[in-house]
Amino acid sequence: MLAWFTPRRETWLFKVNPALKFIIFFAFLLITLFNQNLSFAVWQAVLYGILFYGFSGYSMKKLALLSIPLAISFFSSALTIVLFGKGESVLWQWGLIKISEESIQHALLLGSKSLSFGFVGFTFLLTIQPILFFYAMMQQFRLPSKYAYSFIASFRLIPAVTEELQIRRNALKVRNIQFSRGLKGMYERLQMYTVPLFAESIRRAQRIAVAMEAKQYQMGAARTYYYPTRYSLMDGVFLTVMAIGLGVTLMLAFWR
Amino acid sequence: MKRLKFTDLLITIMIGVVFGILMKFWDDLYTVVKPILPVARQLIYGMWFMVGPFAYLLIRNPGTALIASIAGASLSAFAGHGIEVLIYGFVQGLAAELLFAAFRYKRFSMAVAGLAGVASCLGSFTLDLFYGYAALETWALIVKYGLRAISAFIFTGIFAVLIVRALEATGVTSLIRPVDKKEYTMLDR
Amino acid sequence: MNYSNRYAINLTNLRLKFPGEDSLIFKDLSFSVQPGEKVLMLGPSGCGKSTLLQVLSGIVPNSIELPMKADEINLPDSWGFVFQDPDTQFCMSYVDEELAFVLENLNIPRSDMAPLIEEALKRVDLHLENLHTPILELSQGMKQRLALASVLLLEPVVLFLDEPSALLDPEGTKQIWSSIKQATADKTVIIVEHKIDLIADWVDRVVLFNDHGMILADDSPSTIFKHYQEELKRYGIWYPSVWDEYKESESFKSMMHEREQVSSFEKILLNDFHGFRGTAPKIFAKKAVAKTGDWIAITGENGSGKSTLLLTLMQLLRTEGIYKVNGERVIQKKRKKQLPKGLSLVFQNPELQFVTNSIAEELTVSLHKMSKPQAVNYAADLMQLFNLPNSGTRHPYQLSTGQKRRLSVATALTPQTDILLLDEPTFGQDARNTFAILEKLEQLRVQGITILMVTHDMEIVKNFATSVWTVADGVLYTNNEMVGGVFECLHGSHLDEKHGYSK
Ligand SMILES: Nc1ncnc2c1ncn2[C@@H]1O[C@H](COP(=O)(O)OP(=O)(O)OP(=O)(O)O)[C@@H](O)[C@H]1O
Ligand SMILES: Nc1ncnc2c1ncn2[C@@H]1O[C@H](COP(=O)(O)OP(=O)(O)OP(=O)(O)O)[C@@H](O)[C@H]1O
Ligand SMILES: [Mg+2]
Ligand SMILES: [Mg+2]
Question: Which value does ipTM take for this structure?
Answer without folding.
Answer: 0.89
